[in-house]
Amino acid sequence: MSPPPRNFTLPLLHKFKETYLIWFNYYTELPKPHRYTLGLRLDNLFVETIENIAIAKFTPTTAKLPFIITAISKLDLVNLLLTILWETKSLEPQHYLELAKKLDDIGKMLTSWKNSLATPMTLPALTGRGFERKLKTSLSST
């Protein structure tokens, strides 16, 4: 039987899916007390983040931003809970570092995507003598 096609047109979604598969291997090795508490919560957050990225991918441009912001928030919580697992020695240091590096890259990609969609602040036209006079006045009074 052949594997399913890998048609992820969004590199971010592909990278996050690959990171989740790595996490899932580590998740099954967590000590029982954390596997069914922090581990389960982390697993759910991974899936919820994937959902938000996928929804944003297929949503019209004007409606993407809330899903991307939610994905960023959930990713921050994933990072926090992974740190707790590492600090309690439930996650091996090399596993934590591998996941942290990948999640950091994903965070940068999400932030970049968010920034590309954010409406830039429009500044009033700063031309003409009136502006120059106000600028000189405000500079000389400081």
Please provide a brief summary of the model.
By secondary structure, the protein is mostly helical. The protein is 72% helix and 0% strand.
Task: Provide key terms for this protein.
de novo design (two linked rop proteins), 142 residues, 6 helices, 72% helix, mainly alpha
Written description of the protein model:
About 20% of the residues are buried. Helix 1 runs antiparallel to helix 3 and helix 3 packs antiparallel against helix 4. The chain has 6 helices and no strands. The protein has about 140 residues and is mainly alpha-helical. About 10% of the residues have low confidence. The chain has one domain: 23S rRNA-intervening sequence (de novo design (two linked rop proteins)), CATH 1.20.1440. The radius of gyration is 22 Å and the shape is globular.
Map the helices and strands.
Elements (H helix, E strand, L loop, with lengths): L10 H17 L4 H4 L2 H21 L6 H23 L5 H25 L11 H12 L2
Helix pairs in contact: 1-3, 1-5, 3-4, 4-5
Averaged pLDDT:
85
Overall radius of gyration: 22 Å
Termini gap: 75 Å
Provide the structure class.
mainly alpha
CATH architecture: Up-down Bundle
- Counting structural domains, the number is 1
Number of helices: 6
User: Which percent range describes the beta-strand content?
Assistant: under 5%
CATH homologous superfamily caption:
23S rRNA-intervening sequence
The proportion of residues forming helix, as a percent range, comes to over 70%
Number of distinct beta strands:
0
pLDDT < 50 stretches: 121-128, 134-139
How would you sum up the global shape?
Answer: globular
Order of helices and strands: HHHHHH
What composes the largest sheet? none
Q: Per CATH, what is the topology?
A: de novo design (two linked rop proteins)
Give the class-level CATH name.
Mainly Alpha
